Every structure is written in structure tokens, then in C-alpha cells.
Automatic annotation (TrEMBL):
Protein name, UniProt field: Uncharacterized protein
Pfam families reported for this sequence: protein_MS5
InterPro entries per the UniProt record, alphabetical: MS5 (IPR006462)
UniProt xrefs under NCBIfam families: A_thl_para_3677
Organism from which the protein derives: Microthlaspi erraticum
Amino acid sequence: MVPSSLSTEGPRVKYTEEEVFGKSVLLGLGYYSRSEHITICNAPPYSPCPVLVSLYAAMGLHGYNLLQGKKLKFSRVLEYSKTRGPPAASTYRMALDAIDPCLNLVRIFETCVSELTYGQFSLRCNFVIPHGETRKIYNIGDEVTSSREAAREYNLSGCMPVMPPLDPFQDTNRFYLLNKSEVEENEWVRMYLDLAFAATHRATSKSPDLSKLKIVQVAVSIDTSDEEGPGPGLCRPTNAVFYIRHMDRSKARVKKKDVDRIAIVRRIYNHRTGCFSLVGQILSSQTIPKPITDEIPSLQSSQTIPKPKDD
């Protein structure tokens, strides 16, 4: 299911900036040439924004909320542009509406999300800023050229998370299990799951069917250096790995007996460059490690206890 915050129909609220329907926010920014194709969303006679683009825009705003400690709500994409095209990785530049729930006002934001590999969940948000503000530019080129480690970090090389050796939903020493209210309050958890599917299933031109997904459990790796604990750290720009166990009832994606799945998502925030990244994969829940007691028979059951001899 696509979260309500990703609906193509936004609420009727007062704008803090001029209406941009039928106009281009992106072309006036100097980022693209005027020959670049701009797609305007939602405003008649234009079509609704694709689910994938809405999710990318929501990811950008989520990164802003983490960094700034805000709780702005994603409303809709106004327009977007993309480089290249399928089946190649693209970079999306988007203008979006974000709602301040406290003031019931809408602000326009600009964000840019790059796919590192087409058909994989490997995304980097290059920047997100309120419309009209000057973007701080970090010259990553020289650093990437001179440092192999910086290049690997920037390109997310070797960052794909894998299943840990112990069950993340049972190992309370290394993982924090979110309760139901925490999952509901942090809508971006569902966004991580939706992104994992939307970015991965790109074989057809149809929008991914996210309505068949239902979250069952969510665990997150514990950062022992975080003095405030794992709970408060969820909404700050901390690096973490999330394990989202869910049911996928889509017959087109999974086999009949393999509906119990787990999305593993690594969140990376680079304070030096300002880039916010998400990388991950979806696996069968059968890959979750079994308890050691289930795999290794107990000493008592594996050995024959000799009977006492009669005197």
C-alpha cells in the first residue's frame, strides 16, 4: 500500500509561495538546460505523478527532516526531470510540496535523487533544500579522485546489507525491536519498504503494486555510541540497518509458499558531503538464522546415558 502521504491529491491549504501549476520551478534553477524535458504532475491537464517519483521525492524530504529535526509531511510532486532512462540508472530532480502540520502551510522543496544501479535498491539523495534557498555545494570530485575509500562510500560500493548471523528479531543485545506505535508514528519505515520494491521491480512500465505488502516486525541495529538509545535515534541522521519483515501477497512477485519476506535497508548519512543514501535488498524470511538450539541437539539428547549395572 502506498502511504497516504504519497497520494497524488494534496489537501487544499494556503500556500506560502506563488502557485506553480503550469509553470516550471526546475527550469529557473539553472540546474538543467531549457532543452531538458520537464514533467509537470497533477495540475490539469497533466497526469498524476508516477509512484516511483513520489517515493524518491518523499525520500528527499525524509532526509531533510532527519537533518533538521522537522516533521514536514510530503504532499505531492509538482514537477520532475530525469537523466537518461530505462534500462539505465537515472538521476531525478524534483520540486515537491511539503506540509508543515503545525502551521497548516505548504512550502516548496527541491531535491535530487540518483539511482546508483538500475533495478537495485541503491539510492543517493544528493541534496534537498527549501525552494529559494542557496544550495551548499561540496566539491566531492577531488576527494573521490584522490581517495579510494571516499569513492567507495560515495558510490555505495560494498554497502549492501546482509542477514546477520543471529535473528535480528530475537537478538536484543544488537537489535532494537520497534513496537507497533513506533512503526505507525514513523511513516518513513513503510516508505523504506515501498522504496525497496519500487526501485527493484522495474521490469514493466506498470506502477508497482504496493497494496499487497503488510509489515509484521521491524528491527534496527543498535548504535552503542548513541547515548540517547536506539528509540530516539530513529529520527536523527544516524547510520543504521533496518530489518522489515512483511507479508507480500502479490502473485506476480513471489511464489505461493514464500510470502513471508524481509527487507534489509541500510541508511547512510554523510555529514561531510550532506548526502543521504538508502541501499538494501529483499530476501525470503527463510534466510533468517534459526536459533542455535534448533540446529544443534542438546548434549543430553545426543548421547546415550549408560544404565547402572546390577550389583
